[in-house]
Amino acid sequence: MSITKNNIREKLDQFTSHWTPHIIAELNGQAVKIAKIKGDFIWHKHDEEDEMFWVIKGCMKMELRDQTLILHEGDFTVIPKGIEHKPSAENETQILMFEPKETLNTGDGQSPLTVKNPQKI
Amino acid sequence: MSITKNNIREKLDQFTSHWTPHIIAELNGQAVKIAKIKGDFIWHKHDEEDEMFWVIKGCMKMELRDQTLILHEGDFTVIPKGIEHKPSAENETQILMFEPKETLNTGDGQSPLTVKNPQKI
Q: Min CA distance, A36 vs chain B (Å)?
């Protein structure tokens, strides 16, 4: 297996679509995913998986049922399994997610935004 | 459980020591750790754990037995389990690691640099 280095900015430059997670690394059954987001996502939860969100650039809103977090560049949060959440961003925002490899972006939600097999880049 | 947001820069400002990983998030049995590094670490490997390194600020050298990677800001790499590696940094460098919660910083190596219970910040 070849061990290489990669760069987050170069990876982000490889796609322009919104709400399409791309896998940039896999380890220990987990995946590191990046996405560009703009507008509203759907309310959903992941029954078995915690999910970390990290804002690389821009500003993201994370609505929970009892509070709303505003995440700016360098801010991160962990949404524990079972907790309903709804990400959104007024302007295009670049985010990174740490989560199990099999985590579905829309969790238990039904939506055309579901990406069943995120692309590895 | 209260869900909060945190900031990577604020977390990095909370300590000055070198080669002392600090846990900033835990999820799915994994930990997100940050460290400030300067000088040489030891050769070691983790028999059961893959380890992701990401340079937040500065420049890190990652020696492997058959190659050397130079990681600048925004660069990342995954060192698969079982692979010997030796991190170092000429000048102080800030890094993030994503790995199983129980991963010992010095792996199978014997060193006074071992941190058995990384502080959560």
A: 17
CB contact under 8 A, A7 and B32: no
Instruction: Tell me how far CA of residue A57 lies from CA of A12, A92, A119, B45, B115, in angstroms.
Output: 11, 9, 21, 33, 32
Asked if A121 has any chain B CB less than 8 Å from its own CB, the reply is no
Give the ipTM. 0.93
Nearest chain A Cα to B67, which residue?
A3
Please answer whether residues B45 and A111 qualify as being in contact, where contact means their C-beta atoms are separated by less than 8 angstroms. Answer: no
The tens-digit pLDDT sequence of chain B (121 residues) is 689 999 999 999 999 999 999 999 999 999 999 999 999 999 999 999 999 999 999 999 999 999 999 999 999 999 999 999 999 999 999 999 999 998 989 999 988 899 988 999 9
Alpha carbon separation from A76 to A62, A69, B10, B24, B56 (Å, rounded):
11, 10, 11, 10, 14
- Domain at B8-120, CATH class: mainly beta
From chain A, pick out residues whose CB is under 8 angstroms from the CB of B69.
Answer: 3-5
Q: Which two tokens stand for residue A92?
A: 């295009």
Strand partners, A87: A62
Q: In whole angstroms, give the CA distance from residue B77 to residue B79.
A: 7
